[in-house]
Design brief:
The protein is built from 4 helices and no strands. It is mainly alpha-helical and 149 residues long. It has one domain. α3 crosses α4 (118-138).
């Protein structure tokens, strides 16, 4: 049976949207000085922030597609179960995303760090997803909030 909710966006559209989104988020984070800069400014700070955010946005897109196109249909149709599993899935998805982003950041900064408080990022990632789907809901698109996406 064909999945009527399947995402059909082309790879080029996905990459373009991800680059634009990542650049906007990285600019905001750079200007707000949320990431530690160790006295660096400009591109020296923007580059690692952009790479970190790109890993999360691009990787998160593919993990969301996995859920929407595959996992969701193996679950019971109970909306409470779908919402609960989805939130747990977001938390679990944040672990490899955070590990990848940390690894890329380490490569760009020539240092080694440990994953530290990855679980805090898990809760932050859930918040990111809820805000993203709230924006989609406001734009009358398929959303977590209307139980469709």
């Amino acid at each position: 049976m064909e999945n009527p909710e399947k995402n059909t966006e082309s790879f080029i559209q996905t990459v373009t949207r991800t680059i634009i989104t990542t650049t906007i988020i990285a600019l905001i984070l750079s200007l707000c000085k949320i990431f530690p800069s160790a006295g660096k400014t400009g591109l020296a700070v923007f580059g690692p922030i952009w790479a970190f955010v790109f890993c999360i946005v691009f990787g998160g897109h593919w993990l969301e597609l996995l859920f929407v196109n595959r996992i969701k249909f193996a679950l019971p149709k109970n909306i409470f179960i779908l919402y609960s599993v989805r939130i747990c899935y977001w938390f679990l998805s944040s672990i490899p995303l955070f590990a990848l982003a940390t690894w890329v950041n380490d490569l760009l900064s020539n240092r080694t760090s440990h994953l530290g408080r990855w679980w805090i990022f898990g809760f932050f990632y859930i918040g990111i997803q809820l805000v993203m789907y709230a924006i989609m809901q406001l734009r009358s698109k398929k959303s977590f909030y209307n139980g469709v996406y």
